[in-house]
Fold each of these.
Amino acid sequence: MQKPPDERVRSYYEASAGPTPGHAAVVADGSARTIVVGGGYAGLATARGLIDRGDRDVLVVEAEHVGFGASGRNGGFVFGGYSLGEASLLRQLGADAARRVYARSIAAVNLIRRRLYEHAIECDAVDEGVLWANWFRDDSVLRERAELLKRHFDTDWEWVDAARLRGMLDSPRYGAALFERNALHLHPLKYARGLAGSVVAGGGRVAEGTRIVALARDAEGWRLRTDAGHTLRCERVVLCCGGYLAGLRPAIDRSILPIATYVVATAPLGERLAQLFPGTRAAVYDSRFAFDYYRPLADTRLLWGGRISIRDRSPAQVAALLQRDIARVFPQLGAVPIDYAWSGLMSYARHEMPQIGELEPGLWYAQAFGGHGLATTTAAGELLAEALCGDRGGLADYRGYGLPWAGKPFGFLAAQATYWWFQGRDAYKDWRESAR
Ligand SMILES: Cc1cc2nc3c(=O)[nH]c(=O)nc-3n(C[C@H](O)[C@H](O)[C@H](O)COP(=O)(O)OP(=O)(O)OC[C@H]3O[C@@H](n4cnc5c(N)ncnc54)[C@H](O)[C@@H]3O)c2cc1C
């Protein structure tokens, strides 16, 4: 009989990350040269980037705990690129800028790898690439993408034909695949905590359980008020609150649509997990608009994510939905027992690119990383750290991706309708191929 997901321990990551190191809340008035609001990857990467450049007077303030938001709940895929596809990037930015922007995401993958090593961050990293598997038999989408990446982005994704893929992954579902070798997967909450630890070890500060409730500028700089009534002062403030909107500046919040996506971890599968992945330990996602993403875990569970929605469903609903999705790919598992089910909020801008910049003198922001945030938050942290240390050059390529109104509440409906439309289109294509 299926064990119901435990409502108290909602995420596998929380259950498996070990004891939290814990960072004390702000309990008195204070100051720092730079204050970062939000203890997700974007905030932590900005702080780490500043410390790497010798600017150690930085304080990260997090309302809940480090990795409470998307950064502690995600699929754990570390790969190149952005939510916006490469073809659109090329069309919108032109060849040179698109290449630079894409290269920033690849450099970020490499930087994450280096940080894991340099700061001895234990986060179950599996540096064995990511497979982009074709849900359909028609492989023109794969060929076109591989060609585009090679021609314009100096990036070589390896072609894996259907027979070879079947030897790597025991699923009858897919056609061919592309293999992105320069990619890895990891335990996202352990990584967030490790990054926070590296900020503190480097001379920065992290405060948890401290919500910033107001932000104002005066002659001396920025004044932030905490929910406990303390005042923090700084020269510059960086808002990195993702889909967990801070409510501090309407222009920042209005440009974001928080969109939910779901993840489950099965019960340990023992030998059966190795049988599903006979020839790879890579993470896998597929070529549909509403794709599945999954990876094998060391304790023989299957971690599985998918779907996007404007609704935050209960763990039991998420478990039931994704259990069905798993059975479509691995029918041999039947109704696989799900031990953990949870959801998280991604932040999307209308243009599907990150928003990184300065809103007013000394008020900076980095948000809207969508479902492609592990590497891109790291890239954003580097861009902001460079800018805060005087070099704004890198930001120029991102300037066109500003803070347009995301259209709430109609934006939510449009996002859901778009999702359904693409989901319907994929289902139709699937039906046509199977009818042939
Ligand atoms: C389920 C899921 C799966 C995903 N899978 C992947 C994946 O496999 N690979 C990938 O690259 N990306 C993935 N993503 C996307 C990625 O996780 C995000 O893009 C990234 O974590 C965003 O980081 P962030 O720092 O911008 O936001 P968050 O991690 O959401 O952090 C924002 C933080 O700000 C805090 N905050 C908000 N308001 C305040 C305030 N007033 N005061 C203090 N603190 C405040 C919040 O508590 C929160 O901790 C996934 C996302 C989700 C939700």
Note: Confidence is low (pLDDT under 50) at residues 1-9.
Amino acid sequence: MLDAVDLEAEKPRGPRLRGLLTLAALASGPAGAEIRFNFPEPVTPIARETLAIHNEFMLIITVLFVAVFAIMIYSMIRHRKSVGHEPVKFSGPRGAAQWFWALVPFAILLFIDFVLMGIPAVKAIVEMEDTKTRADMVLKVTGMQWKWQYEYPDSGIRFVSTMSTPRDQITNAEAKGEHYLLEVDNPVVLPVNKKVRILLTSTDVIHTWWVPQFGVKRDAIPGFLRETWVKIEKPGTYRGQCAELCGKDHGFMPVVVHAVPEPEYLAWVEQQKAAAQAAASGADRAWSRDELMAAGQDVYSKQCVACHQPNGQGLPPAFPPLAGSKVVGTPLLAPDGRAVKDSHVDRVLNGKPGTAMMAYRNTLSDVELAAVITYERNSFGNTLGDMIQPAQIKALRQEAKQ
Ligand SMILES: [Cu+2]
């Protein structure tokens, strides 16, 4: 639907007008984008080095371009046929000299390529790949359709980061904000001046974690663990995007990193741990149906809405409706307290392998799972009237671990 809106808007314009409009849009872009003639400011050693190499290479090729074309144009004009010049023959005594003049530029180019350009490029690539030397901490990044999950193995923190740009801005019902499509609910927080080893993977298709100011753009591939690293030298908020066409909401999975001084980072870690503890203890008490419904609506609108849609109608045939779904209509648990295969609870906890429906057991908390399941059973016209408690989810989870 969104695509249709955009296409409609583009249709009546000719190519030239569109070019002008693009320029105008760049000048007064929705993200307050000023016209920029260079890359964004690099804030990691890798980003600085790649930019320096890029500049060096640009200089070299510009000099080569100007020199080669100057000689060529000069020769063509100076030695033209109309003033009586004859082509030289590549045989006889002058042939050897011709070879000399062919091989000398070749040697010069080889030198430029392998020494002036090759050495710094190889050095930078080796440094880029060196994720382990003196790494201070690890961040694990998991790409999912269409959000990022971040884990801090050292402190046990784990959360999902989804885009927070309101739908109304996307459909033009509302003016676009400053960080349109580049804002999230839970940004990554990292300390400055620490080497952070980043591990990347994906649960479904290939995504790419890209933050231009870090000089980092690495694929997150299902079934593989890839690595990269950053050492952010300047506190600030850095924004990026998924850079791999990964499906319908590819454009809606931004990356936002808050780089803060170490004490601030440590305070954040403590706060996250306390919040996780509070969430875990929430799983032990009995929740009312209204509480679960409210929490469930929140989870649904962040985690499930992209595929199953706000009204629960899905986008068949790719994404099934939850309204009137047979799976949602299954009884919650078997009499012995287990989740029956292919039941509603089983589908949400364990997903369906080979489809876009991922397992949420390791992404959502007990409370979130109980809430979203209860919500789906009693929304979109579904009236099962029952609910599941976070404590029951917790029990199921523990059972699966044994
Ligand atoms: Cu993606």
Note: Residues 143, 207, 242, 244, 246, 250, 253 surround copper (II) ion (CB under 6 Å).
